């Protein structure tokens, strides 16, 4: 299905982004790989080119989504290199592991710059190109935390709730232009997300918390996501743990979910040493 399609993935240097890049390459897509670390992207490119069944090599386009002024040129460079952008997967992001009381406002602002404003700015830069070419597919990697409030993730939950709302509203505006919008809602996936998460003072958490360690394999996660995208699903929940049940519990029994999250607070504080 994705043979000769052009898929642009941010946050492609590791985790879900890397696994998505490999899965799309296997299915014949030309993949544009973006993140800040050019050396890591080069390794992903080599892996993609090895498994690719498509028309050519993947493309490395280093980029910082928080550098808003640079994004229009990045779009121009992407189109110049690949000819078009059939799908943009806004996957760049950073998480949090700290209590509200111990989190600096600068840390909250950083999370929003990366997880919200960076995604909005790049999407706005790509939209005119998709409209001009007659269609496309916009994707945002949100989280189950975009639907549920989880302890020690106040900033992350706020940011993911924000992008869920933004892309839900955007979906209604771009349907007339033959542009699809899909929101990915991962649960716990075995990535470096918690290692790179920000603590209250902005430093890295530096370890894998117990929920992430027990999560779904990222390659399996990517296969589920790509299957959902191929079907044009507006929301794609993906995960193998009990956290996925929280989506429907929140909808139908919100008070029950709040009590469960209170218990999760105590468990996380004890097991993972969050402060």
From TrEMBL:
Residues in Ketoreductase domain copies: 5-192
Listed name of the protein: SDR family NAD(P)-dependent oxidoreductase
NCBIfam families per UniProt: PRK06181.1 (NF004825)
Family listed: Belongs to the short-chain dehydrogenases/reductases (SDR) family.
Annotated keywords: Oxidoreductase
Entry annotated with the keyword Lyase: no
Keyword Nucleus annotated: no
Domain of life according to the entry: Bacteria
